[in-house]
Design brief:
496 residues; Thrombin, subunit H; seven-stranded mixed beta sheet; six-stranded antiparallel beta barrel; mainly beta; 29 strands; Pdz3 Domain
Length: 496
Amino acid sequence: MHAIKPSTKALLLAASLIALSACSKQEPASGTIPAPAKQAELPAPSAPRVGVNLPDFTSLIEAHGPAVVNISTTQTVNARSRRGDMPLPQEDDPLFDFFRRFMPQQPRNYQAQSLGSGFIIASDGTILTNAHVVADADEVTVRLTDKREFKAKVLGSDKRTDVAVIKINADKLPIVTLGQPAQLRVGEWVVAIGSPFGFDNSVTAGIVSAKGRSLPEENYVPFIQTDVAINPGNSGGPLFDLTGKVVGINSQIFSRSGGYMGLSFAIPANVAMDVVAQLKADGRVTRGWLGVTLQEVTQDLARSFNLEQPRGALVADVSEGSPAAKAGLKTGDVIVAYAGKPVNDSADLPPLVGASKPGASKTLTVIRDGREREIDVTLGRLPDKDRELALENAPDDGALRLNVVVADPPAGLHGKGGAEGGVLVRQVGPGIAAEAGVRPGDILVSLNNQTIKDAAHLRQLVKELPPGRRVPLLVKRDNGSLYLAVEIPARAKQAG
């Protein structure tokens, strides 16, 4: 299990349940004990209805549980010495013997162990799991439900999707059947089988909470969100639908404690199998690349761009020389469709682009200056390290004064942020800029779609802003770009 947020060490707690019963008696005050009042005869209780409207998972588990395996790994880890990273003096140093005798080092290396899960997709011993389960492992051991153990070889892995393929030397093994995640419906029952905390073939169940979730640093995978209990050791295990087909690989949880908190995420099976196919064919995974920075279209940004409703993916930056730049895509464009598929949120676009083959020609539907148009783009190949399709969060805006102190950017700062022109924000006081999310160190590139030439030009643009409206402000920040929605008060003079 891979937690989205840094977690503390998981603790396995033992709990005991104590059943209590209470009895209350009331004594008469005095005199003769009255005869009990005759009670009306009640109908005999009917037999309890068992399993009404509740799924029965027993057949599913019996049929497919043997195809789920336990995975354990060992990894050589470099240990720090008791003195930190300070090295020993050389042997000819007079202090060498003192340090050796009185400040002994810990072993330079030690073996770390970890646990995970996986499932057999081919009878020849091909197994699917998470990339983080077998990452940097010196040795991978697979244990079947019949207690047989095999050493496994990692055939390939992809860190972006967190998918890995491993193989054991065995045959005639039970296998799972792969399903169609696209046919999943929110509210549908799903079942997970895995080895949480090393407890083999543990079964948990829940429902599909949402589909197409984009997680931080994982925006190429449209995750399946469930409320199935997932804990350390479940990583790489299968997520079944009620027909007994695997629809996902359990990968991550959202946790503040390190343990399950009701939010679990699985990699769709079709995404995983695409990775498997590419690893088998080419030994690596390639993805389409557009070369843009995206952000969500909020209600305020929609108003600032004169959109009828907040939808699509807002282009905050276009990488120089990228396929998007060659196709004529511009900052401020709102992408609402990709190859005929709607893009309702910014998170919808990266998986669509990533699933496309490099060199493929795709049609983008964009809104520019309030009008819809189509732009044809030939995709490039996503760089192995650079994440060009980033998802940014748009800060909220307010209705105060601009109130910023700016200066011309120092030489060389343009190159860092990729901006041409613009002004550097030195200070931000209370006002609409601060409420919109402007920070010291930002480079203000354009205001209301007008490129900012210098500080004097900014003051002129501010004076021309339409009162009582929201306008877009493009800023460069931390080598990236994003739009902020600035609300101009209906009354009050603006100052740059």
